[in-house]
Amino acid sequence: MSNFLSQFQAFKNTVNHLVIAVEDVNDLWPTVKNAFEARLPFKRASLNNKTRNSVFVEKLPAEFILTTDSRLRSRFPQEQLLSWFREPYATVVLVTCEDLDEFKTILKPRLKLIVQNDEREWFIVFVSKAQPANDQAKKMAKKVYAKVEVEFSSKKRERCCKYDMHFPEANFWEDFESKITECIRNTLDRRVQFYEDEIRKLSEQRLMPVWNFCNFFILKESLAFMFEMAHLHEDALREYDELELCYLETVNMSGKQRDFGGADHGDDQATLLNPGKKSLTQMVQEDLFREFEFRQYLFACTSKLLFKLNRPFEVASRGYSFIISFSNSLASRERILPFCMREVWVITACLALIEATISHYDEGHVVPDMEQEFFRLLGDLYSLARVKFMRIAYLVGYGTDIERSPVNSASLSLLPWPKPAVWPSVPADASAEVLEKEKLFLQTNPRTKHFGIHRKPLPLEPTVLLREANRRRASLSAGNGFEMLDSRQAALEGSPSQKLNVSSMPRANSSPVSINSSIDQPMRLSEIYIAAEHALRQTISNPELLKSLSSSEEFEQKYLELTKGAADNYHRSWWKRHGVALDGEIAAVTFKHGHFDQAAKSYEKVCALYAGEGWQDLLAEVLPNLAECQKILNDQAGYLLSCVRLLSLDEGLFLTKERQAFQSEVLRLAHSEMKDPVPLDVSSLITFSGNPGPPMELCDRDPGSLPVTVWSGFPDDITLDSISLTLTPTHNADEGVKALKSSTAIVLHPGRNTITLDLPPQKPGSYVLGVLTGQIGQLRFRSHSFSKGGPEDSDDFMSYERPAKPILKVAKPRALVDLEAAVSSSLLINEYQWVGILVRPINYSLKAAVLHIDPGPGLEIEDSHVIEMESSSSVLQNDDEQVQEDGAQIGSSNSGKRSECLSLHDGKIEFPSWASDTPSTLWVLIRAVGDSLSRGSSSATTRTENIVDGMRTVALKLEFGVFHNQIFERTLPVHFTYPFYVTTRVTDKCNDGTLLLQVILHSEVKAKLTIYDAWLNLQDGFVHTGESEGRPNSSDFPLVISPTSKAGILFSICLGMTNEEEATKQSESILNIRYGISGDRTIGAHPPLMNESTRVDGARQELIFRTAIALQRPVLDPCLAVGFLSLPLDALRVGKLVKMQWRVERLKDFDKKEVSEHNDEVLYEVNAYSGTWMIAGRKRGHVSLSREEGARITISILCMPLVAGYVRPPILGLPDVDDADISCKPAGPHLVCVLPPALCSSYCIPVDSRA
Amino acid sequence: MIICVAVVGHQSFTEADDALKLHHIVHCSLDVVDERDLDVRDADVRNFFRRFHAAYVDAVSNPFHVPGKKITSKTFVERVSTIVKSFGLSSAG
């Protein structure tokens, strides 16, 4: 079998392209060779793939070989099966002939002989050597070629083409290539068919004992190779895939114990990309190949094809799975393989794969998604190599150089130890090395973390190596199968017994001691390292890898290279987290070498990732490292921020001692001489919120003090030198934020604190807390975050998402207090009267309020007198709102009505404390000064009241609020009046000339008035009658007048002689009334306050009221009365006669006028506008009227109205009599209504109802 | 395809000494979640979590299980792996 294999491989190695045979009949090849070979490779060949679909192959390489060539001649029939793929795929027959006879006799039979072999695909190229000038020769050649075509071409298939050596026809080469391609296609199809048939035959025997995988392999690979030569790579790839499947089935199926392979020197270096590393004969064993080599070989072939297809991504992806699955195969055979063979192989395989795929990778060639995935795979490969490399390094004692980070721990502690059959033992001559190793160990000190953070180091090993190694040795010495089984089981279950500690290790000693002392003695750790190192030197053939393990520096370099490779590639893929986590590992190394800025940059990235995604535990691991870098780099801002972030992490993540260390660092820096005071964001550490409950409410313009809850995340008390908190209005963004400041130092205890800030008056609206800023030493900190509410506040999870609630509401300006006059009715003018000012607080305290009182013109305040203040419960009860809100207050105010005497200082009154919340009335003594004398009027004229006369104003200004910041101003109108308003009329004129003058007194006040006396000082021209001296009957007094009622007093007077001098002196009469008043100040006018000195107890208080009355002597005395007699209703119509009547009556004698002849006759005249009236009868004439008093006569005139409408009626006048002597009684109308004329029936037209 | 399933309790991570590595593993697994989330159908994930939760409830209902401690039930492990495998199958289809 191996013979065939070597031949097969030899054949495979000799060719890598298709062969085209050239049958050179007429020795033409040397002349056409160059032209023919210039066509290679064929630009575009149409071939069929395995499924007989047409495929165009670009640049198909081929080679022309003469049939006489040794390569084509020395073929033995038995080789055909092995080498058929390299047989010619087409035969070109080159002929020329210029003579028909020659063709018939010589050429034709010879050609027939050549083409009789049916298996070959052939065609004839007739070469014409005729010179272009030689027409004869050309003609001949044409004739001969025609013959050739007749002879060899058929309708089905053209097998001839003519090549003009000197002037090739334009389409010759196209024709030539298509014919060659056709031949190749046909041959390929036939051979594919042949191989498939053979393969099928073999496959059917697979379960039989005669089955031989090698035969199957040769056929299958021949087919694959043929496809590869024809550039049908996809088909070739499929063949290899099938081959691999078949191989794995065969290997797993045959129960025979076979050699796995991998025991040769150099096998530790993966050959998964190099198919020629080992020849097939080196892999074969009996009828099958060794798995170790063969699977790598198959993968190498596959990857070669994939690279040819320009699919490095697929190589990487297939390669990664291959490495994993192959690694598992290696693991299951670990006992027969050299120590750590698996790890070493994986490392080399990964690195080889990475190198090959990157070199074949064209950037930007594939879609972005694919590219990302490619880099992810590279990252995975690097990462895998890295882990395995760390594992080996750990075994030889570089464990101390490996950072015990979560990344490394995660990959290493879950990775089982190698399981060799026997753990390598220390070579006899290695005791010096052991000693040195031990010394090295003693020198290395575990690095302590910054801030004195102490953590149990994360494990880098699945179990304690010491125990594992010794156990594996012991199990060998004891031949303890159970132990081995147990360990395997444990590994399979994936739960290595990590918790067992070293002290349980001596169990190995208890196993029976038998073979030799070097085995039965448990090895020390340094011995294990040395032993492993020696064993690995045996395993590893790659000098580079060996070098990487030779010293800790070399190890570190390789470690860094692999880590960087993984990180970079992950960064270029989607797997940012993997990349960033590895950045942390790189940072650890750079840190170790003192490249702190680099380390800080990387650590920052890592921290940002963990912080951004909320992985606090991981952050707690990395953040101290970053802080240390920053401290060394003297990056104060960064360092402070890191300390704050450390403090903000979950409390459980650090010990109190450690947290205190963080805080002391913050304080140390804050109080040190910082060059630039750094701003620091402590949002995560100091949070704040308003107090729970409803927001604080303030009235407009009121200051206050705002309590704020601040949570401190510091482990100890911390002193804030100053603090400032902004308030942001929620209603209006334009309005800037206001800052509340507290300049005194505030000590924050850990946890919840409540601080109180002074709040200056704010504009109306609601406010939320903005930013907390403050100062600790040189440090300016700010916090944006609202407290999420401590757990003691609420355990409501939803509260985390609640928007910041308003902390302060400043109400829109509203009335806080009301001042009004207690009494609306009028007070007495010119007397001391109490004016009541009702002070009503509206839900606002008037504590220590001050009232300024400024009397207006015409008003004076008796400021020497006390001012009374009393609570006014009556007002309180009227106020519904107050009643509902504060019942208790009402009760108290009802039960005890308080009052107090206050005094006025500089026009100001200070309120007593009891009046701060309850409505109260302030009684101020004032006097309105009125200079004018009250005037009476005649009852016939209507009274013209002038309100302004009696009105005075009091300007009030109330200062209240905590800082007297609230001011309320109001001007109160107060009405004053005289007690009476007097009207007069003459009730009767007696025949004896006595006039009865009635004086009517109207009460103007809401108080009972008592009149004790009244007398009239008459003006000139009037005199009193009788003895009463102008006083009415005294028995009428005292006369009591109820509020707003009237009373009358009669005076009897008569006309006296007129004295001109007197008349100018006294043109008006004066009425004097002595009266008393009894009223209540809460209602209106009341008895005026007397001076203490003049006051007599019990004496009735009498006041004088004086008013002027104008009396007029009578001037008119009519002697005739003319009355208009009413007209009948509807009497006035145009064109209709109507009778107008006037009655003339004699009222008295004309005793003064001496009219002799016309005494008994009266001249009358009717006046009417001639356009509206037609008078029928005498317009003017004399009528007789008796001279006796009471004589009457009626004058009738017929009139006819001429126009309709309101018209003036005719008027009767008496031209001889003075107007003053005529009284019109009843008076005629000014206008009368004249109706239009009645309808004339002759003009009537019947009205149609529908019209 | 599911690469890793972690049952994370409130305290279960902090219980072990080397819990950090588990934090790391789960954190890095999010890369896979980020990458794959577009491929996964919503219904599949829902179904997966429903079954997963049922298995979890059964496991912690065991009277011998101390709440908050690591779940040690082998049945639970088996069930979870069955669920994981079936998820891979259904989403591949």
From TrEMBL, chain A:
List the GO terms this entry assigns under cellular component, sorted alphabetically.
cytosol; TRAPPII protein complex
Q: Which residues form a coiled coil?
A: none
Keyword terms, alphabetized: Golgi apparatus, Transport
What compartments host this protein? Golgi apparatus
Where is this protein primarily located? Golgi
**Protein name per Swiss-Prot or TrEMBL:** Trafficking protein particle complex II-specific subunit 130 homolog
Q: Which domain of life is it from?
A: Eukaryota
Q: Where is the composition biased (Polar residues)?
A: 495-516
TrEMBL record, chain B:
Question: What protein is this chain from?
Answer: Trafficking protein particle complex subunit 2
- One Pfam family, please name it: Sedlin_N
Query: What is the organism of origin for this protein?
Result: Lupinus luteus (European yellow lupine)
Biological process annotations from GO: endoplasmic reticulum to Golgi vesicle-mediated transport
Q: Which InterPro entries match?
A: Longin-like_dom_sf, Sedlin
Q: Do you know which SUPFAM superfamilies this protein is assigned to? A: SNARE-like
| Transmembrane portions of the chain | none
Entry GO CC: cytoplasm
